[in-house]
C-alpha cells in the first residue's frame, strides 16, 4: 500500500517512521507548501515524490492512502477532495472544528464510499483492547463516574485556527471517556446528557484550559480537564459500583510497556501490564492498511468508527459552546 502525506509537521514525521516500519506499506509521497520543508522531509524519511500542490498528490494514481496532518480547520476540505478522488483517508484528530464541517466531510466519505478513519491513534494499541476487556468483564461493577485530565505545553506549536486546547488535546480524554461509556452503557447513554464548563482563553483568544462536568445515563457523571499551556500530565480513572480502574501509563501515548490498575474497593488492587511491539502509530498504520486491503470502509471498535467520530465531535463542539469566563 502506497501512502501520501499532507503536511511536513512533527506528527507527519512520526507517521512517516511508522509507515516505513510496516513491511506492507510504502511511504511514496508528501505534499506541503514550503519547498525547503518538503526537501528536508523527503531526505530525512526517504520519500520518493514531493508535491507543492496537494491536488497533484491526490491525482497521482499510485497513491492508495492519504494521511492528512494539516491543521484542524483544513481537515474537512481535504477529506472531501480525497474522497472525490477515491482515496482511502486517515485524518488527524480532531476530525474538524465544528459540526457543519464534520457533516460535510462525512457526507463526502459516504457518497464516494471510501475508507475513512480519524487519527485517534491510541485506540489501536493493545493497551486499549486490554482496558476494554476488563470493562466488559464486569469486575468493577456498574459505571458510576469517570475522572480524566490531559495537559501538555503545546500552545506555541499549534495553528490558532485549530481552535485551541479542546480540539488539540481535549479530544483525547473525551474520546476515551466516550469509549468507556459506549462499552459499559451503550452510546445511547449520552442522549440525556447535560454539560457545564469553566474555561479560560489564551493569547490567541482560543480556550487554552477548560474543565467540563457532564451528567449522562441514569446516575452517571464525568469530569474532564485539559490545558495546552503547561505541563505534560495524564489522568484517567473509571469508578464503578464495585471498584475502579486507573491508567498508570499515559493511555494517549502508549508504548512497549504499559500499566493500569484494577482496585476492588477496600479489598484488593492488582497491576495489569500490557506489552506491545511498538507505539500507537505503529499499530495505527497496520490496522488502517489491513482495513483498506480488506475493502473495509471504516474501522471497528475500540477504534473510532464514522459514527464514533461524529459523536465525539458533537461532544467537543458542545463543550466549546459553553464558552470561557
Descriptive account of the structure:
This protein has nine helices and 14 strands. The chain is an alpha/beta fold. The chain has an eight-stranded mixed beta sheet with strand order 8-9-10-7-11-12-13-14, with helices on one face. Strands 3-2-1-4-5-6 form a six-stranded parallel beta sheet, sandwiched between helices. The chain starts with a strand and ends with a helix. The mean pLDDT is 97.
Brief description of this entry?
This protein has 9 helices and 14 strands. It is α/β, with parallel strands linked by helices and 325 residues long.
What Rg is obtained from the alpha carbons, in whole angstroms? Answer: 20 Å
Basic shape: globular
Q: Into which percentage range does the β-strand content fall?
A: 25-35%
Largest sheet: 8 strands, mixed
Number of strands: 14
Assign the structural class, choosing from mainly alpha, mainly beta, alpha/beta, alpha+beta, or little secondary structure: alpha/beta
Range of helix content: 25-40%
Give the termini separation.
Answer: 48 Å
If strands are numbered along the chain, what order do they take across the biggest sheet?
A: 8-9-10-7-11-12-13-14
H-E order: EHEHEHEHEHEHEHEEEEEEEHH
